[in-house]
Amino acid sequence: MTAPESTSPPPLALSALDRSGEERLVPGLLDDLRTDAATRVLVIAGDLAPLSAPDALRWVAPSDVPAGAEWGFLGRGPDGTALLAAAFAAQDEELFPAPSGWGALRAVGGLLSAGDGSAFVEALSLGRWLVDAPYCPACGTRTVLGDAGWSRRCPSCSRQHFPRTDPAVIVAITSADDPDALLLGSNALWAAQRFSCFAGFVEAGESLEAAVRREVFEESGITVGAVTYHGSQAWPYPRSLMVGFLAEAREDSAARADGDEIAAVRWFRRAEIGRALAGEGDIVLPGRASIAHRLISDWYAERA
């Protein structure tokens, strides 16, 4: 059995690019960079990006981007190269050939380098907003792009709009009595053998800690005691910031599925988790790109 990596930030939590926020204010920045052959562009179609290898993005020159994209400035790479996103709605066919095809963030994010991973999650988060929110939500007027893709201004009511980020908690539940037990749940929309952590959006006026306690109780029937922050990462499905926690159950026997969103809950032994992380057995755990995978693998590694 291969033990997971030691505790470290989730793969999509690493910031390997200089977002160069002040540069966004430079007038005509996008137009200038789109005419510069040295600029590199990450094309996004729906939630897919082109791959030069199974573990590497394919960056292209601005002149290679098909017409009709929504453009945004991602920042600067380690060597100072300007990086742009060119976003499209989901396509029936690939926009152009890529050596290793096109991959979704949730599928390939855990394989990418820190630079490619942080660029992909930034480009997808910004690109979805550029594609999906062109109109003012207050009056319905088509907005005007500003700040190199990071804001929109309404010419009718003068409101300014920015990309949204919705906080969500994601929780792995530990036992107060058994250090080798972890509670996971199976969503009603998943195959029966797929299990993950419990998650939900933070409600208006609610703290992260309160959201953890509410979501865990609603989905699993568990009242939790100690709540420990573990890390966070962006997850643009559709525009979440996933905030990860470990929470300790007060009473293991209270575990039960809500029967609506969660079809099954189950206490797993540490050895079972280890086999599943190694790809053995019937249980399917979250992919490596997700913070859920990191929560589970870090819990396992503590006593592996």
Report the C-alpha radius of gyration, rounded.
Answer: 21 Å
Q: Biggest β-sheet, characterized?
A: 6 strands, mixed
Element order, helices and strands? Answer: HEEEEEEHHEEEEEEHEEEHH
Tell me the number of helical segments per DSSP (H or I, 4 or more residues long): 6
Helix content estimate = 10-25%
Q: Name the poorly predicted regions.
A: 1-6
In terms of DSSP E residues, the strand content is 25-35%
What class would the helix/strand composition place it in? alpha+beta
Say how many strands there are.
Answer: 15
Inertia-based shape: globular
**Mean pLDDT across residues:** 94
The end-to-end span amounts to: 10 Å
Describe this structure in words.
This protein is an alpha+beta fold and 304 residues long. The protein is 20% helix and 30% strand. The protein contains six helices and 15 strands. The chain is globular, with a radius of gyration of 21 Å. It starts with 28 loop residues before the first helix and ends with a helix.
